[in-house]
Specification:
Blueprint lengths: L1 H21 L1 H8 L1 H39 L1 H6 L3 H53 L5 H43 L6 E2 L9 E9 L5 E10 L3 E7 L5 H8 L8 E3 L5 E5 L5 E4 L8 E2 H6 L6 H11 L8 E2 L8 H13 L5 E5 L7 H14 L4 E5 L11 E6 L2 E7 L9
Parallel strand pairs: 1-6, 3-13, 4-11, 4-12, 7-10, 10-11
Antiparallel strand pairs: 2-3, 2-5, 2-6, 8-9, 12-13
Length: 415
């Protein structure tokens, strides 16, 4: 893009000099159209960027409603809601087509403005030049040559307009991709000293929603490099937000220091983490492919974890995503194995018992208790399954994150 701009500017500048030396009167007439051209370009460019973003949003809405209908088809059929969803989908599609047509209109307009200027300018030059020919100021040959030079002068501008139109139509998509790939979450990590067990510590911190409403506060909280820590609270209290904050998956602007004595020091063990995250992620492929995600683990590792959940018989099953052809329990077991097989220093489990049968829950608990000796395990839960094995149980209540239960042999400081 930058090289094309430079080439266009050089080519345009060269022909400007040529036409000025050929006949300065006609040259000035030709150049009068340049500011008008750029004004039109700027106005169209702004509209094109805005409409492209709107079109992108409407397209997202179309994809979302389509996925909802596909995944919820059994429930939609049971409650006889087909008509409602068809009407809703049609309305969303109409809004998308309307936004897309407006975007395409300005895209074409931005491309065609230079062509229009390039077509009109020679006609005006011919009319004015004919008068100069009658006054014997220039010859017919000079006029013909000048018209050709003017045409060549506008060629690089037309090419540049094509690039600008493409850039502005696609900028929203590039911005979205950059935001996903290069988002910078600055979570402060506490360097670990060899032979010295360091704790992660958070104190005097307020956590806010994206709407800038206080979600909860933390007065004083710390945890070791290893052990089980349970996090509890009502739905919407901020349990998952707290975990996402630790994992640098939450906008840093949404947590604020209460004072100069506030602390947010997170062990570098969080650089080695695996996370049972909701909603689950799946792709078209075998169950085994969805567990390994391209990494290599020993067959024994995979077999041992599958035995915990009686899941080995599903490894060769082909996963379909629209709609998903795994039961809720199968989805949960697959994702648990995906997280645990990676053997990271920090293991984060968001409602690990969800959709599991009682035997699988008991086997999972046994495994977690074994892993706690060498791993930090954070568990978001609404049950008491892991309470007696936990070093601490934290609860978010009344917009405060507090310690509900603490094992003094594992923790030397209270929360």
């Amino acid at each position: 893009m930058r090289v094309a701009k430079i080439n266009s500017i050089i080519q345009f500048s060269v022909f400007c000099i040529i036409v000025l030396f050929t006949n300065w009167k006609l040259a000035l007439t030709s150049l009068i159209f340049i500011p008008l051209y750029f004004i039109a370009i700027m106005l169209s460019r702004k509209n094109l960027h805005t409409l492209s973003k709107q079109s992108q949003k409407k397209n997202d809405d179309c994809v979302a409603i389509t996925n909802s209908i596909i995944n919820g088809k059994p429930q939609i059929t049971i409650v006889n809601a087909e008509k409602f969803f068809i009407e809703k989908q049609n309305l969303i599609q109409e809004n998308y087509f309307s936004a897309r047509l407006k975007s395409e209109f300005f895209f074409v307009l931005l491309q065609r403005i230079p062509s229009f200027v390039q077509a009109v300018t020679p006609l005006i030059i011919l009319i004015l030049g004919a008068n100069l020919v009658r006054q014997d100021e220039i010859t017919v040959g000079t006029l013909v040559m000048f018209v050709q030079y003017v045409g060549m002068m506008f060629e690089p501008i037309e090419g540049l307009a094509q690039l600008l139109a493409f850039k502005n139509q696609n900028t929203p998509a590039f911005e979205r991709l950059s935001k996903v790939l290069f988002a910078n979450h600055n979570v402060k990590c506490l360097p670990m000293t060899k032979g010295n067990t360091q704790k992660s510590r958070i104190s005097n911190i307020d956590v806010y929603t994206n709407a800038n409403e206080l979600l909860f506060s933390i007065d004083d909280l710390d945890f070791n490099e290893t052990g089980i820590y349970c996090i509890k609270g009502e739905n919407g209290a901020g349990k998952t937000t707290f975990i996402n904050l630790l994992c640098a998956l939450y906008d840093p602007a949404c947590f604020k220091l209460q004072s100069e004595h506030s602390v947010f020091e997170i062990s570098e063990n969080f650089n080695s983490k695996s996370y049972l995250y909701h909603p689950h992620f799946f792709f078209e492929g075998t169950v085994k492919d969805n567990i390994l995600l391209g990494e290599k683990f020993s067959d024994q590792q995979l077999r041992d974890l599958c035995n915990v959940f009686n899941f080995e018989k599903f490894l060769d099953k082909e996963v379909k995503t629209n709609p998903i052809n795994l039961s809720d329990g199968e989805q949960q077991k697959l994702c648990l194995i995906r997280v645990l097989i990676r053997n990271k220093k920090t293991i984060i489990l968001d409602e690990p018992e969800k959709s599991l049968d009682s035997i699988s829950i008991q086997n999972l608990r046994t495994l977690i208790v074994k892993l706690k000796q060498d791993h930090l395990i954070l568990i978001i839960t609404h049950t008491s399954t892991f309470d007696q094995d936990a070093a601490a149980v934290w609860e978010i209540k009344n917009k405060k994150m507090q310690c509900k239960q603490l094992k003094h042999e594992d923790m030397t400081e209270s929360i």
